[in-house]
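dumping this here so i dont lose it
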């Protein structure tokens, strides 16, 4: 439902931008097509992006209009005019690193070839004016009509990622304890986490940019900083999961009792990540102490039985260390740190 609402907002904003752009052009007596094209392709996820890319797109469109006029003058409205106008526009944008304006400039250039027949000098400035109108209108609409706010989407993503991560940890350690390793499912765990992490990091970047024009306040600001803190914890948990996946597991020698203790700790960890109502600091610390006892018992065995290669840790110790590290990150995940804006 929320995804539909977000898409619906974008559709409405695009429609409003087109309407206002075409109306202004009609008042000025200018052809609206170039302004409308510009308004459509320059509506960015954030106001900041609209302004930054608009600054690049305007000079890029100048070059596109210039090449259209230039090659119409020499080759009239022949196919070579379209080709040369597009190629020179693209080459210039790439050379001057105007990548954000390449699409708008190229569309403007080739579209002008079709409609430009006389008064080249005046037409050049009219096209420049219509492009400017499209840029300004799309930026203004983005700022005042349904201003972008990604905070709730970020929080939902964080909660969903925490649930998925808890499930992934439980499945992973269950397979480890059952000595049932499937390469495809292991890769899928990391790929799914990476995809969700990357998407959420992008939304956070959008929200940071947007806060320059629409600052967050009060509880929403606290939630946003908490979400950033939690995303860092999830990123570190993903790191420890990858370490478990990369640990050779051919010689696991835990007893049935040790496996039971570890699996109970893993199940509690998964539940606490799936819902904050299951997180209990006292139970959390109790599980940590149990795992620490197993860890130090295993460490003593290494000291006694591995004199020749004391730095070669057995997989049992590595897995316990990674599980304890995940426990630490989950504890910090549920902390409410003091937030300071950078």
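and the seq i came up w/
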């Amino acid at each position: 439902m929320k995804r539909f609402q977000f898409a619906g907002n974008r559709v409405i904003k695009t429609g409003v931008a087109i309407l206002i752009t075409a109306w202004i052009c009609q008042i000025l007596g200018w052809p609206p097509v170039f302004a409308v094209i510009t308004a459509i392709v320059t509506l960015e996820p954030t106001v900041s992006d609209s302004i930054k890319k608009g600054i690049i797109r305007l000079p890029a469109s100048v070059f596109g209009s210039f090449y259209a006029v230039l090659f119409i003058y020499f080759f009239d409205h022949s196919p070579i005019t379209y080709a040369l106008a597009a190629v020179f526009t693209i080459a210039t944008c790439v050379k001057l690193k105007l990548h954000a304006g390449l699409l708008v400039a190229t569309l403007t250039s080739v579209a002008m070839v079709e409609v430009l027949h006389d008064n080249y000098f005046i037409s050049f400035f009219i096209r420049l004016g219509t492009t400017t109108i499209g840029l300004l209108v799309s930026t203004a609409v983005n700022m005042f009509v349904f201003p972008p706010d990604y905070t709730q989407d970020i929080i939902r993503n964080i909660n969903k990622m925490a649930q998925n991560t808890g499930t992934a940890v439980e499945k992973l350690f269950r397979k480890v304890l059952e000595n049932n390793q499937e390469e495809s499912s292991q890769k899928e765990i990391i790929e799914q986490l990476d995809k969700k992490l990357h998407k959420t990091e992008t939304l956070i970047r959008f929200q940071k940019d947007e806060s320059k024009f629409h600052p967050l306040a009060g509880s929403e600001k606290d939630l946003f900083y908490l979400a950033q803190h939690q995303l860092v914890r999830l990123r570190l948990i993903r790191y420890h999961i990858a370490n478990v996946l990369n640990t050779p597991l051919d010689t696991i020698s835990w007893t049935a009792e040790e496996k039971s203790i570890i699996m109970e700790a893993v199940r509690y960890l998964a539940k606490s990540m799936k819902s904050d109502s299951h997180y209990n600091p006292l139970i959390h610390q109790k599980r940590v102490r149990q795992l620490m006892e197993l860890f130090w018992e295993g460490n003593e065995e290494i000291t006694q039985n591995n004199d020749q290669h004391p730095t070669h840790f057995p997989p049992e110790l590595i897995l316990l260390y990674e599980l304890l590290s995940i426990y630490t990150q989950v504890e910090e995940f549920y902390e409410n740190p003091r937030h300071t804006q950078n």
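The radius of gyration is 29 Å.
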